[in-house]
Amino acid sequence: MSLTITLSTLAILGGFIALVWGADRFVSGASATASNFGVPPLIIGLTIVGFGTSAPEIFVSIVAALQGSPELAVGNAIGSNITNIGLVLGCTALMTPLVVKSEILRREYPMMFAVMLATLILIADGYLGFWDGVILLSGLVFLIYWVVSLGRRKNRRDPLEKEYAQEIAHLSTRWGLFWLVTGLIVLLLSSRLLVWGAVNIAHVLGVSDLVIGLTVVAIGTSLPELAASLISAYKKEPDIAIGNVLGSNMFNLLAVMGLPGLISPHALDPAVLSRDFPFMIGMSVALFVMAYGFRGDGRITRIEGGLLLTAYIVYLGILYWQTSPL
After folding, report:
1. Whole-structure pTM value
2. pLDDT on residue 141
């Protein structure tokens, strides 16, 4: 048993490291290639960069569903959203207060809540089915179309335009395609490694795939968001820090939850609807109240960042209390 835990732990750690590296290479390659083909920086940022940080979640979701662990994928989707707000933005705001000026982000908040409501309606019966997956993935297509249309219409003086222009990697098309393909391959292989280790740990410790997905896997696959947000805050690009989380959270619900429904329809653990989804909604409402900016620029202060991080720690405590064999 000790050997299994050791090997599984090493697999998880190695998988996390490779996921972060692969996601970074994928985003750099894809954004550079798109830029070389004349796609405006704002659209690249709102789509490739904004959603690209969710690449680890999507690959883990596919592998978990194909290997018969769809609950791990569901836990990863919801857990990553909670982690993005509580851990990622909480830590980022503690490092430096986030002042949000982008009008585009103000338009993304209602869309995020619409995505959450639609997802809740689909899974309210306690079952994530094939057609639920089809609807969620169709919603993803619509979301990408909406974001691209928003990027085309929006005034180029929006702070996101300048911030994303600075973030796009400057690579030749050949190297852009090389890192795009390399990143995809690494994401696939590291996802398989991570899921294998996570499922083994869950079985040895006697906890559900859902809980492992909500905690260990969610934290690991949120590392790209954490790194991107911390770096953006350090570079005085707070709109990107918030924008990455909003885009990632919508992508997680539509794609990361949609794929296990499509690949492996299954009944959901009751805790998803009674504990995890409501907590995710509560964290999203808190983010909206803090960062929307009803009378000017939105702002997440250090105190508010501390509150978000505290709420996340409380959530982990609830999970431990409810699943502990003691």
Report:
1. 0.87
2. 93
